[in-house]
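Input (structure):
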């Protein structure tokens, strides 16, 4: 089997996917980053190695997400692209006529608008946590409900309450108030889903025309209560892809395939990176008033990469100087 790997390293979760020559997902993994991206990249590579048939050949690898530059250095990426590009590429492969992508992850959310297969606009919300996966996890824990049951309970509600959802703090306070007034947990959960959708549409998607087909991606798309709330607010169907949690990784794999098709070779270090020790260290450059903090990535005793200087003086990536800027 010949595959392309995609790695999406976010602040909350690390996702990986392997696609075959027909662009089908043959293996994937989803892990919490837990503030240890290097460890999670190694663990993800270990899991993919075990999931893929023996003798599988990796033709290329791509990275995306907030930790794409770091992951790219660790695995020897052929393509390093931002998450807007990766999510759009994955969505277009699944639904070529898609016009709107709603993506809600662990700590941020975004909307991507497309026209004739080209991204024409996007917006991200990285300020307020309301509506993100971490916020929903916290509320599920506070209500003593498994997050897996959150969406189903929302659908069972007959009289959802209205909850203020413009701020995570206010939403939580309002939920507590509604509980004290005697409203059922199901009605509170349904009201919360509706509030978070209003928050998304009034902030992230403010002033933007949402046109179908609409794809709902990211970990929060697993919550069928949120899917239903989006459909009620928009008035049309919202599509949740089968591999919605790893769409960014799938997009990164597809982008890697495009790159390798042009170069004819891959810089993938191999699954052996799962067994190699990496170390990160920093130092300050005092050559000017900026006092930049420089980060170095070491593989055993070999310097793989260095970045962090505003002037670019210290930037270095082993065999790939073009990766120093982190990709488009």
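Output (sequence):
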């Amino acid at each position: 089997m010949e595959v392309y790997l995609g790695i999406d390293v976010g602040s909350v979760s690390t996702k990986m996917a392997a696609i075959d020559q027909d662009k089908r997902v043959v293996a994937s993994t989803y892990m919490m980053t837990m503030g240890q991206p290097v460890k999670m990249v190694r663990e993800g590579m270990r899991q993919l190695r075990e999931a893929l048939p023996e003798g599988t050949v990796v033709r290329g690898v791509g990275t995306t997400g907030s930790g794409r530059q770091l992951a790219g250095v660790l695995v020897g990426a052929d393509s390093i692209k931002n998450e807007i590009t990766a999510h759009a590429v994955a969505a277009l492969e699944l639904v070529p006529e898609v016009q709107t992508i709603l993506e809600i992850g662990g700590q941020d959310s975004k909307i991507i608008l497309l026209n004739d297969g080209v991204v024409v606009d996007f917006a991200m919300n990285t300020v307020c946590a309301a509506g993100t996966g971490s916020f929903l996890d916290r509320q599920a824990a506070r209500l003593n409900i498994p997050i897996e049951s959150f969406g189903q309970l929302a659908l069972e509600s007959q009289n959802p309450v209205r909850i203020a959802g413009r701020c995570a703090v206010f939403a939580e306070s309002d939920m507590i108030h509604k509980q004290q007034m005697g409203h059922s947990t199901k009605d509170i959960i349904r009201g919360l889903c509706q509030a978070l959708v209003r928050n998304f549409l009034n902030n992230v998607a403010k002033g933007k025309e949402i046109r179908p087909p609409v794809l709902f991606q990211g970990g929060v798309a697993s919550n069928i209560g949120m899917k239903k709330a989006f459909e009620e607010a928009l008035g049309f169907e919202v599509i949740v892809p089968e591999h919605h949690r790893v769409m960014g990784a799938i997009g990164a794999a597809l982008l890697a395939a495009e790159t390798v098709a042009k170069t004819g070779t891959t810089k993938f270090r191999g699954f052996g990176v799962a067994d190699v020790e990496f170390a990160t260290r920093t130092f300050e450059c005092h050559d000017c008033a900026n006092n930049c903090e420089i980060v170095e990535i070491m593989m055993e005793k070999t310097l793989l990469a260095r970045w962090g200087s505003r002037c670019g003086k210290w930037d270095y990536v082993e065999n790939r100087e073009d990766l120093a800027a982190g990709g488009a």
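Notes: DSSP finds nine helices and 14 strands in the chain. The first strand starts at residue 2 and ends at 9.
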